[in-house]
Amino acid sequence: MAWYAASVVMYFELKDEPQQDYYVWENVYLIDAPDTAQARTKAEALGRMEEGDDDGSLTWNDKPARQVYGGIRKLVSCAPSLTGSSPDNSRIEDGMEATWSAFMVGNRQDLETLIRGEPVQVLYEE
Asked: How does pLDDT run across 58-109, given as a tens digit for each residue?
């Protein structure tokens, strides 16, 4: 078995009116599976389990909403740690890379803003 990090996209959809903006969550799940296909199947099932409206109580911007499974944005094999004791990728260990993202920022100030964890516009690359 191998470990995978699955980026599952969930979004919030208004129930009673059209919308232009979508609030999106990207949930990263660690998946233990024998191959990529089975890891994807497990990740899709996890995303579908999260769908719903919390028995009618879910709101977005004070309006009735539901959480919707959007899909798997990225599925990557977890890389073993360079200093770990499990070179065969069969165990999750301290220092193991679970996932990664690549994006561009417009300037040094945006970079520093991003590093501080504050909102900034980025160009997300795949």
From this structure: 999 999 999 999 999 999 998 776 665 555 656 777 788 888 888 899 999 9
- Number of neighbouring beta carbons within 10 Å of residue 5: 21
d(CA 45, CA 119): 31
Quick one: tokens of 125? Answer: 């690359």
Cα–Cα distance for residue pair 27/73, rounded to 1 Å = 10
What percent helix, strand, coil does the chain show, rounded to 5? 20, 40, 45
CB distance 79 to 97 below 8 Å: yes
List all residues 6 or more positions away from 47 whose beta carbon is below 8 Å from its beta carbon. Answer: 8, 9, 10, 27, 69, 70, 71, 72
Q: What is the pTM of this model?
A: 0.80
